[in-house]
Each structure stands twice: as structure tokens, then as C-alpha cells.
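Hey all, quick one. A colleague (J.T.) asked me to put the LBFN2T5F job into the tracker so the inputs and the C-alpha cells live in one place instead of scattered across chat threads. No bug as far as I know, just bookkeeping. Sequence used:
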Amino acid sequence: MEFTKGHGTGNDFVILPDPDGALDLTPRLVAALCDRRRGIGGDGVLRVVRAAKHPEGVALAGEAEWFMDYWNSDGSYAEMCGNGARVFVRYLLESGLAVPSGAGLPVATRAGLVRARVEGEDIAVEMPRPRLGDPAAAALGGLALTGTAVYVGNPHLVCALPAGLELAALDLTRMPDVDPAVFPAGVNVEFTAPGEPVAGTDGHVLMRVYERGSAETLSCGTGACAVAAVALRDAERDAGTIAVDVPGGRLTVTVTGDSCWLAGPAVLIATGEVALPALRP
Ligand SMILES: N[C@@H](CCC[C@H](N)C(=O)O)C(=O)O
């Protein structure tokens, strides 16, 4: 089967073109593809399927030709993936499956319709507007934190580190402890620290993330949107632009009255053939 490998600020994906939804994509196959030793390796899989050919995309088929079928590397699937959407759009454009649109290129996702545009070298996607929830607890080793739950189509918990503690000091080799009663479907946990002022923005935040279904990643687009929403709330602003630095680079989130745009690099690095039977354990 043909595949393309791509990433957005180091959040990497195996892209599978499957326009007619003919591929029997299972959790096991996704996990095997994402295996960094026995497979291609990735934080997740993006299946490129016509909205009309996917049961979860068909309702949006009148508005978007393509459905982003996103899966985490452990074989679970998620409602939304911000970097995935940006890489998905890069793939559509470079493979000629779509052309840039002034009105924004529509893509169907499990969290609804998103629109994308090319901004110079970057791809920007209009995400679901982050919805702030209640305070919630997280623990990492001996560190107990209270963060803010945020929904960006998928669930997040944004935790600011206490002053004096460096992001680099965190051990994110295991999932932070959270209350499963508060997050019954699991949660992506972001840890943040303030960054130096960045020209042209209203704030700058440094972030690391432990993703539901993928462990620590170099970047999380929906996580960056969640972090930006908390930064704006803390600054008592309804709108603004926040630079979010992740281990894989910089994302820029712009929140206005009713929209949230996520922008940053989205790169395709390789195309090849994968022998699916060889992957199956
Ligand atoms: N890396 C993604 C988020 C992927 C989904 C997440 N792991 C979940 O299960 O909700 C992004 O860029 O947003």
C-alpha cells in the first residue's frame, strides 16, 4: 500500500490514501504502522478518505470532499488532531487532491468541519473554538498540580508549572495521573511555563504534552489551542495571538470572537510502499 510520511512541528503521521474507504484499518494495523522499530513509525495515522465513503464523514460530504480519519499510535482514534489536520491539508494540496481556496479548504473530521488556508510556508487550520472547563488535578511523580480542563473537539488538561520548575525537568515517560471520573474518555495533558515576549503576539507559552493514545509527542496542535485559551483567560483577554513553543518548534494560535486558528509548518518527508501483510504480527 502507498503511504506518505509527514509531520507538523515534529508531531509525525503515517498518511494512507484510501479514497474509497476500501482499507480494513484496524487498531492493530494502526499500532503496527506506528511502531518505530517494526513499522514506519509515527504518533498517529491519517487516512485520507472521501467524506462520502466514510460512515463518520458522510454527513459532511456536501461541504467537504475529504474526511480526516485520524488514529493515535496505540490504535485508538480521536475526535480531532490539529497538527494532523495541517499535515492532511498539505498532503491534499501536494498530491493534487485539492486546490487552495480563498474561502478556506474544508476538511471533514470527527469534530466537524474545519477550514484550512496556506499562509506562506505554513498551513493554518480553523479549529473548534476551545471551551474552558473546570479546574482538575494532575500528578506527575511527586508533583501535584491543578490545571484547567479545555475542550478543542478533544479533551485537554492544561497545567502551569510552579515558578522555578523547568519543563525540561519533567519525566513524561509515563502518563500523568488524572481522575478517570473527570476524564472518562482519557485526556491529553499539557504542562506549561511562561516564555519571553515574542514580537507580534500577545503572549508566549512553552509547552510539553503527554498525549492520550500516543505518549509524549514533540507537538500537539489542539494542545497548543488549549494552552492559548488558558493564556488569554489568564491575561483577561477574549482574543489575541499566542506563540506556543513545543519541543518540535513553534505554533501560533489566534483566537478571535468566534474562531481559533492554528498555524505552523506542515511537511511531507517521504512517500513509499508498505507491505501490510508483513506488519501484521
Ligand atoms: N497531536 C494531535 C492530537 C491527537 C489526538 C490526541 N492524542 C487525542 O487522543 O485526543 C494534535 O495535534 O492536536
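Adding what we noticed when we looked at it: The chain has a mean pLDDT of 96. DSSP finds four helices and 18 strands in the chain.
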